[in-house]
Amino acid sequence: MDAFEDTEVRARQIQCDIARTRDEMDQTLTELERRLAPSEILHQGAETVREGFRTRATAAIETLKRHPAPIVLAAALLGARFAFRPSAADLRRRQAQQDVERAWSLLGVAFERAKEQSQLGAAKLEELGRLTGARTWRTMQRATAESRAMSRVLRREAGAHPLGAFVLFGLGAGMAMLGARGLRAGR
Q: What is the pTM for the complete model shown?
């Protein structure tokens, strides 16, 4: 019966090996579950980031201690940037200046158009004067000369103040209207 006992002993050893292997596998699986748990992965990732940050921060501090000039320069530049940035009043002033420049540009365009219309009107007046006779012709020539003189005054005075240009333009238009009434009345 030796063979039977040997087989039985051998079977018990195999069962013990299987039980031990199961225990080892259970421990391995438990350890894997613990390591692969989301909270553990998050904790390990955070710890890795913290360690990397500590390492880099320490290296940066050491570099700063060895070479302080670039940091001082960078700090001075940042300080100057914040110290000399335009204030809200400066920004409003700059916007107002741009608006004034735009208005002057539009005013210049308006004067050019008025000049063109004045020249066109003068040409029409000359033609009308030739058709109506010498006396009317002289009156129209005076009105044309006065219109051109007013145009020169308007251009000269427009540089003094924007509102002055509008007032003078209104006066010039009024004088032109009075001159046209005088022509109609036969004066």
A: 0.30
Angstrom distance (rounded) from CA 19 to CA 8: 16
Over the stretch 21-68, which tens digit does the pLDDT of each residue have?
Answer: 999 999 999 988 888 888 888 888 888 989 988 998 888 888 878 888
- Distance, CA of 104 to CA of 100 (rounded, Å): 6
Is the C-alpha dihedral spanning 36, 39, 40, 42 positive or negative? positive
Tens digit of each residue's pLDDT (9 = 90 or more) over 157-181: 665 555 555 555 565 666 555 555 5
* Model confidence pLDDT, tens digit, residues 96-133: 889 888 888 887 888 788 778 877 777 776 776 667 66
* Calpha distance 177→113 (Å, rounded): 18
What is the dihedral sign for C-alpha 164, 165, 166, 171?
positive
Rounded Cα distance between 12 and 167, Å, is: 120
Instruction: Find, among 90, 87, 63, the residue nearest to 74 by Cα.
Output: 63
161 three-state secondary structure: coil
How remote is the C-alpha of 99 from its chain's centroid? Answer: 17
Fill in the DSSP letter of residue 186. Answer: T
